[in-house]
Amino acid sequence: MRKPLPLTPSQPPTPSRPLTPNQPPTPSRPLALSQPLTVRQPLALRLPLTLGRPLALRLSLVLGLLLTTALQPSAPAAAQSAAAPPPSSLTWQPCPGDKIGMACADLQVPADWRKPDGRKITLKVGRLKATGTSEGAVLVAYGGPGGPGIAMTQSLSGWWSKLRQRMDIVTWDTRGYGSDQFQGLSTGLPCTWTRVPIADFPRDMADFGRLSDTNRGYAEACRLKDPELFANMSSADHARDMEAIRTALGDAALNYYGASYAGFYGQAYARLYPGRVRTMVLDGTANHSAADWSGESEAMARTNEESIRRFFTWCASNGCADVPGLWRKLIARADRTPIPTKTENVAYQAGDLQSFALGMARQGAPVWPKLAEAIRKASKGDASDFVPARGARYPDQATPVTECTDWPRFANLKEMTAALTRLRKIAPNVGAANTLASATLNCIGWPVPVTNPPSALPKGLPPLLGAGAWGESDAVERVLSQVPGSAVIRHNGPGHTLYGSNPCARDHINAYFTAATLPPRKTQC
After folding, report:
1. CATH of segment(s) 8-192+245-291+457-524
2. What keywords are assigned to this protein (predicted)?
3. pTM, to two decimals
4. CA distances (Å), 119 to each of 112, 113, 228, 236, in order?
5. Which candidate, 66, 113, 105, places its Cα nearest to that of 235?
6. How far, in Å, CA of 481 to CA of 483, rounded?
7. Which of 85, 87, 151, 523 is 20 to 30 A (C-alpha) from 310?
8. Residue 312: enclosing H or E segment and its boundaries?
9. At CA 149, angle to CA 146 and CA 152, rounded to 5?
10. What is the DSSP track for 96-157?
């Protein structure tokens, strides 16, 4: 068994390459799930938060505490005593279709971690062995949820070349997201993952009831194929799987890199197994460790308002000083009457325009002239420039099987209306668009409860490391502020996650994994 190295803050490493700013996320639509896998970036959070569009399996680039069940332990100690199987030897063989020397192994875990002797499912685990003497393993997850860790690592193996000089790179295909649509090799849910538009905010109890029944209807079509697995797909279930992988590897403690939504898996692991964390990197994720979930949605709205105001500030000196005023009038009008487009049967309400505009604003100066022109054109009655070039025509969301077990949703119309009023006051230009308030609308009426509600991180964790571009770094900072000695790497520019595209951030993260050294608390890359 490998022993964890001590964690010692130190001066940052000197990047071996000049800093290349993180590239902005692609603004357009997700790949069709039947398309061949082409991986360039980690999967985004499947929120429409700060990433322009939610994702099913777009691998280029992304962002609800009413009910709990016995699955959620009353204390971290309870989780540590109940979950992982005893150490076992994994049998490694070449991964299917391998071309880079990656080995795979099958690991059996409970479908329901409350029933360790019950039905088992298979996790496919992949490993790239260290090119030098191995000092341990880093477990990697790319997000989604549903990003196929094995296929993505095979496509992104160059990311890990420097870290592999000292560490094994281990990944896995997460439970439920199988080969039919996600190219995952673990046990999958045998259902079709659909995409539906983000719902409008209900205006009365009848709207609220119809939304609840609509959500339940399309969820049941998936749930009934495998009720047990459907109910055990939360980030906490993925975290328990991570612990099983750590145990099977024989590692004394966990080193973990979680990009985008996989940062939720890391936060869940930190709550369940705080004494088993050596190092943990949360890259471009959202905060699932807020004691006040409504407050977190408000913080997200403030970040979104900052994004659109950053664009307005640019306009003041780039020939579009008229745009902020036009935008406010446009949103007020669209809240009453949808703005038409030249695309048949497509017209946009205020929330649609706010979601699209935020996605464009977060891509930075190269896209801002196009956004200014789209606003001008829409203010004259034609919102066609907001219509995506391909894919669905409205802000949408994939079947949120994991998300609806992680995100508390509104219990009733009164609660939703109060939250909406607060968010619109905080962010007058963008309102509740691309926040948890809008993303969780599709979870109202979900047939399984929230089994992994957000909660604060426990005491006793070692210092953790976060990273993120505009907005993301603020969310990661809210997570890591709970863990003394932690640090956040910030990129003051557009993008989603840093490790794959920002050499400065990558060098700091590699030093943290290998030597357990942290950069200064608010490092800029």
Report:
1. 3.40.50.1820
2. Hydrolase, Signal
3. 0.84
4. 8, 10, 9, 18
5. 113
6. 6
7. 523
8. helix 293-316
9. 105
10. TT-SS--EEEEEEEESSTT-TTS-EEEEEEEEE--SS----EEEEE--TTT--HHHHHHHTG
Q: What is the pLDDT of residues 294-318, one digit of tens each?
A: 899 999 999 999 999 999 999 999 9
Phi-psi region of 497 (alpha: psi -120 to 50; beta: other; left: phi over 0): left
How would you label 106-119 residue by residue, b for 16+ Cβ within 10 Å and e otherwise?
A: ebebbbebeeeeee
Percent of the chain that is helix, strand, coil (3-state, to 5): 35, 15, 50
- For the chain, the straight-line distance linking the first and the last C-alpha, in angstroms and rounded, comes to 35
Q: Report in angstroms the alpha-carbon separations of 33 from 36, 198, 243, 304, 391.
A: 8, 19, 29, 29, 11
Long-range Cβ pairs for the range 2-6 (8 Å, 24+): 2/135, 2/136, 2/250, 2/251, 2/252, 3/252, 4/252, 4/253, 4/278, 4/516, 5/135, 5/278, 5/515, 5/516, 6/516
Domain boundaries, the chain: 8-192+245-291+457-524
